Amino acid sequence: PRPVAPDRLNAQVQAQAGLTYLERREWGAAEEALREACNLEPFNGVWLAHLAWALYHDSRGGAGKTRRDKARQNVNRALGLERSAHGHAYKGCMLFDSRQFPEAVDEFREALRLDPSLALAREGLKQAVTPRQGGLFRRIFPRRQEAEPGIFP
Question: What pTM did the predictor assign?
Answer without folding.
Answer: 0.80
